[in-house]
Amino acid sequence: METAFTSENVWAQARNILDERALRLLAACFARALGHGGVQKMARLSGLSRRTLSTAKRELAALPAKPAGRPSGVGVRRKGSGPKIDPELRAAQKAALNELIEPHVRGDPMSPLRWTTKSLRKLSEEMAAKGFAVSHETVRTLLLEEGYTMQSCKRSHEGGDEPDRDLQFEHIAKTTAAFQEAACPVISVDSKKKERIGNFKNDGREWHPKGEGPKTEVYEFTHGVEKAAPYGVYDIGENQGYVNVGTSHDTARFAIDSIRRWWECMGRQVHEGAKALYITADGGGSNGSRSRLWKVALQEFADETGLNICVSHFPPGTSKWNKIEHRLFSQISLNWRGRPLETLETIVSLIGSTRTKTGLTVTAESSKKKYAVGEDVRREFAKLHILRHDFHPEWNYLIRPRKG
Fold this sequence. Notes:
The protein has 3 domains: about 5-60; about 85-145; about 165-400, Ribonuclease H-like superfamily/Ribonuclease H (Nucleotidyltransferase, domain 5), CATH 3.30.420. The protein is built from 14 helices and 9 strands. The protein has helices at about 10-15, 20-35, 40-45, 50-60, 85-100, 110-115, 120-130, 135-145, 165-180, 250-270, 290-305, 325-335, 345-350, 380, and strands spanning about 185-190, 195, 225-235, 240-245, 275-280, 310-315, 360-365, 385-390, 395-400. Strands 1, 2, 3, 4, 5, 6, 7, 8 and 9 form a 9-stranded mixed beta sheet that branches. The chain starts with 7 loop residues before the first helix and ends in a 5-residue tail after the last strand.
């Protein structure tokens, strides 16, 4: 069996490169692989005696297995070999590093140090300026030893400063259950973020043939660009959504017109014979708890339909708990991800095609109606037929239709 390791030329080079121990162990490996007659053949090639090779075979068999994670070359470097780390120097390095990345650094809060030394290489440069010549990999090791990890911002503040937050949640849950038991509709309403209409980049990715993905504008100026304002109504009991996409101001009248269109398009048929409607909304924007126009427009809607309209607002900072956010709006965002919203018709089509495995269906329509801002409704507000709840009356109230 003539192979590379039985070539005299190879072993002539090996004798010039390897030390005696490495040479005999390597020759012993090949002798064992050759089987009968291997010791004699390898003795001739390597220049070692047969006795040395026989001893090397026994030495080879007695070698311990290489520990997991240890580099190759068993027996050359023992565990713990290498230069020792000076504990005092290590402590000084960690102290200097902690001073660099301390979030509350003394001095100017806008100093470049705070904002430019977050990368490993920048920290390494700043450490060198302090007299510690360490590589960026050493900086990584020091950070890990100090308990640091790579982290991003997390949205966690949910309006917890409001003392009655949980009590309001309980009130909404109980009222929802009571309305559903009475076979009355419960809807969650809100405005979705305005979207620019045009060939602009839309977050998210979709599958396309290689190199054939959508191409959008490089510069995304907002001046003079028409925007779409989707206002959504989510029927909690029926798992149905309705979205009115307008291009005017997102006012309270636009919000109530959207609810009115939902009632005429879907609600009246689904909830035939209903005498009351329960609306849950966040505390700000066009359906804000402090908006007079919102209540005046609700009163007009109640007068038109004869519905007793009960409203509950979520506490400040907790709008993400409103069911429309995660049951309707999040699904719409997933459905149109990675697609430029080039026209109003495109937006309406993408919203209307939103479906989920849990049975969500969505109806979408567009509206070109113009809405004015700054409408004075003080006189109309004084004529409201409103009954406020004892618990947080600014959040919970009932608007009843006026007779005649």
